[in-house]
Amino acid sequence: MSRVRVCTHTKTHRYDIHVGTGLLSQTGKLVRRSLGNEAQRIGLISNRKVFSLYGPTVVESLTRSGFAVNRSLMEDGEQHKSLKTLENTLLFLAAAKLERTDAVISLGGGVVGDLAGFASATYLRGLCFIQIPTTLLAQVDASVGGKTGVNLPAGKNLVGNFHQPSAVIADIQTLTTLPSRELVAGWCECVKQGAVSGKKLLRDTTEFLTTLQAGNLAPSSQLEKLIASHCSFKASVVAQDEREDPLRDDRHSRKILNFGHTIAHALETITNYRRFRHGEAVGYGMLVAARLSKNLGLATERELESLTTAVGLCGRLPSVKKLDASDIVAAVRQDKKRKQGNVQWVLLEGIGHPRIVDGSEISHELLLASVREVFRGSNQLLRINK
């Protein structure tokens, strides 16, 4: 088992990310170690599919460690990360009679984690929260850093809070049961982190993906090490800018983790969260951001090709043939990452050198042209995946 320590820059909150094989059966021991002896009740939030696979193991382990467990199963899908589901979850926590010394556990992907985290942040003005991420995207990104929230019709994650977990338990065995699209989404998020982190993390990720594409089975220890490396990188960013200070524009700002997310959120919004997994949308978002970087003279054609190849290695992305680039550009204006009315873009001056660029520096025509170029070139991704 690998362990990554997360420590906020104010030193007020510390927690461990546990990454390994077979950790679900150790859930009770790890949770008890994190919460102490005062915690008696657990509100476990999951969805039906995930709970049917892993719920019994987790509940048995928690029960062995002396916890009384109540569960709530939400519907699956980004469209259910809503105020209505949040209300139902809060009513569940009340019915379970959780007290301030008790805790909420999320068992699932990023949707479950975001909603359960927000519910735990608001019920009784804040309960302890444990993340058990079961998707690759959630293990390397969504479960780390304390962002929680729900969506509004106007856009994604417009209502939320920063609520750091008390622990993260990432069992890589859960990845063996994931549909291929969930793995594609997770690997896209890994490429995103590699692109803003530096050449080593991106190289390690692309080498691992190349091995998988060749049909070889990588040892679980290699996967464990890679996931821990991604968690460690994100933890280092969170430590320097826990709450994503809106006034910070330096390359150590937490904003750099939004590379690819401006277009991704627009794609999710205009398709009502039904066509793309989040990471799949990030895949396209990275390509647009990289194309913008190249068109603005920040990045080279070689770096653009390198990132395109890395995204292609993640797997096949959904088609964008019937989407209108103008609709996407219009949706970008609603992105929540605005400053003085302008969207804040994360672009690249090279791999490992993110730069935050004010939307006023990007003309409507350039953005539209960049989106169209990526859409026309989307067949290149299909060729990589043949």
Layout: helices, strands, pairs:
Layout: E1 2-7, E2 14-20, H1 27-35, E3 41-47, H2 48-64, E4 68-74, H3 83-95, E5 103-108, H4 110-122, E6 128-133, H5 136-142, E7 147-152, E8 155-162, E9 167-171, H6 180-197, H7 199-213, H8 220-240, H9 261-270, H10 278-295, H11 301-314, H12 325-332, E10 338-339, E11 342-348, E12 354-358, H13 364-376, H14 378-384
Parallel strand pairs: 2-9, 3-4, 3-5, 5-6, 6-9
Antiparallel strand pairs: 1-2, 7-8, 10-11, 11-12
Average pLDDT, all residues: 92
Q: What is the overall silhouette?
A: globular
Tell me the series of helices and strands, N- to C-terminal: EEHEHEHEHEHEEEHHHHHHHEEEHH
Return Rg in Å.
20 Å
Q: Please state the second-level CATH architecture of the largest domain.
A: Up-down Bundle
Number of strands: 12
| Count of discrete domains | 2
Helix content: 40-55%
**Count the helices. How many?**
14
Task: Summarize the biggest pleated sheet.
Answer: 7 strands, mixed
What is the CATH top level name of the largest domain?
Answer: Mainly Alpha
Structural class assignment: alpha/beta
Spatial separation of the terminal alpha carbons? 35 Å
Q: Segments where pLDDT lies below 50 for 5+ residues?
A: 382-386
Strand order of the largest sheet: 1-2-9-6-5-3-4
Would you write up a description of this structure?
- The protein is of the alpha/beta class and about 375 residues long.
- It folds into two domains: about 180 residues, 3-Layer(aba) Sandwich (Rossmann fold); about 200 residues, Dehydroquinate synthase-like - alpha domain (Dehydroquinate synthase-like, alpha domain, Up-down Bundle).
- A seven-stranded mixed β-sheet has the order 1-2-9-6-5-3-4, with helices on both faces. A three-stranded antiparallel β-sheet has the order 10-11-12.
- α7 runs antiparallel to α8.
- The longest helix has 21 residues.
- It is globular and about 60 Å long.
- The chain starts with a strand and ends with a helix.
- About 50% of the residues are buried.
